[in-house]
């Protein structure tokens, strides 16, 4: 059960923790912007080093290994500082960014107990942290458009689920039909050995990818394939239209990059004095 004090506004933090929080979590301040830009540069450099570590001729080179561990230690210190400066560390740890930040450093530590390059390659997950660019270079329109897109997709989720259900039914039916048609018309030789393979063919055909590993050889099968391709072109615009309609209805909001030190949420109004999610003072 949540502590009732979790929802009571608390005084603004003072001292070292407050300063660290301002630098790390708020890109609106000069030091915060400098920290986040430096962090982006470090992330890009670490991803490049991780990629080089898997290239023949670079793997095992001393400076590549040292650089990889340098970035691991750097991001570890940054992660610990993030946990230290928030009032509710667990809220950050289990948040989306908290999990991404932790996963950015764990792979290299796993190397201490496991050998091979596979584990190190997972360090490339650090590239996900580049998504912070949407928060760091916080042009007002950039922030609003990103939030509008996310809200539009969420509001259209029911329509999208219905659309995907219809598509699933179509590919199941057509895949089954193709299996039956090909085995009836070409029993001595065809590419459809099972219904699941027919469904796989239907998915590839309907999305107009067309790998070519399975093709119908009978005239009825070719006709069904043509119908499915045309149907795929017709349906491809449906999800785009659903999301576009929701975006049109979205209201634009003026938001800042301020992060609540209590619940780690962003997207507060410019004139907000308290977090609109937990009530803590900003």
Question: Can you summarize this structure?
Answer:
The protein is mostly helical and about 280 residues long. It is about 60% helix and about 0% strand.
Secondary-structure map with pairings?
Blueprint: H1 15-25, H2 30-52, H3 62-85, H4 89-93, H5 96-103, H6 106-110, H7 117-121, H8 133-136, H9 140-155, H10 157-185, H11 195-206, H12 219-235, H13 238-248
What percentage of residues falls in helices of 4 or more residues?
55-70%
Please trace the helix and strand order, writing H or E for each element: HHHHHHHHHHHHH
CATH architecture of the largest domain: Up-down Bundle
Q: Report low-confidence residues grouped into runs of 5 or more.
A: 1-13
Q: Give the CA-based shape.
A: flat
What summary fits the major beta sheet?
none
Which structural traits does this protein have?
60% helix, mainly alpha, Helix Hairpins, flat, Four Helix Bundle (Hemerythrin (Met), subunit A), 13 helices, 282 residues
Structure in words:
It is a single chain. By secondary structure, the protein is mainly alpha-helical. Helices cover 60% and strands 0% of the residues. The chain folds into two domains: 15-138, Voltage-gated potassium channels. Chain C (Four Helix Bundle (Hemerythrin (Met), subunit A), Up-down Bundle); 157-245, Helix Hairpins, CATH 1.10.287.70. The chain has helices at residues 15-25, 30-52, 62-85, 89-93, 96-103, 106-110, 117-121, 133-136, 140-155, 157-185, 195-206, 219-235, 238-248. The longest helix has 29 residues, at 157-185. The protein starts with 14 loop residues before the first helix and ends in a 34-residue tail after the last helix.
């Amino acid at each position: 059960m949540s502590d009732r004090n979790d929802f009571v506004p608390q005084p603004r933090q003072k001292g070292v923790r407050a300063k660290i929080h301002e630098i790390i979590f708020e890109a609106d301040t000069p030091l915060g912007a400098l920290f986040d830009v430096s962090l982006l540069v470090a992330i890009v450099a670490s991803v490049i080093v991780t990629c080089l570590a898997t290239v023949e001729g670079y793997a095992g080179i001393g400076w590549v290994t040292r650089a990889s561990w340098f970035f691991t230690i750097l991001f570890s210190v940054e992660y610990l500082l993030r946990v230290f400066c928030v009032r509710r560390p667990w809220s950050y740890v289990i948040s989306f960014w908290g999990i991404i930040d932790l996963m950015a450093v764990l792979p290299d530590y796993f190397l201490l107990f496991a050998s091979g390059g596979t584990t190190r390659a997972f360090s490339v997950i650090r590239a996900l942290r580049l998504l912070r660019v949407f928060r760091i270079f916080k042009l007002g329109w950039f922030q609003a458009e990103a939030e509008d897109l996310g809200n539009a997709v969420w509001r259209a989720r029911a329509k999208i689920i219905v659309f995907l259900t219809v598509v699933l039914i179509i590919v199941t039916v057509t895949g089954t039909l193709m299996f039956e048609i090909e085995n009836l018309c070409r029993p001595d030789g065809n590419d459809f050995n099972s219904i699941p393979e027919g469904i796989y063919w239907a998915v590839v055909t309907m999305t107009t990818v067309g790998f070519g590993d399975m093709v119908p050889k009978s005239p009825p099968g070719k006709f069904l394939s043509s119908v499915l391709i045309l149907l795929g072109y017709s349906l491809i615009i449906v999800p785009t239209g659903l999301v576009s309609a929701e975006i049109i209805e979205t209201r634009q909001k003026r938001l800042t990059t301020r992060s609540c030190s209590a619940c780690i949420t962003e997207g507060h109004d410019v004139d907000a004095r308290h977090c609109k999610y937990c009530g803590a003072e900003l």
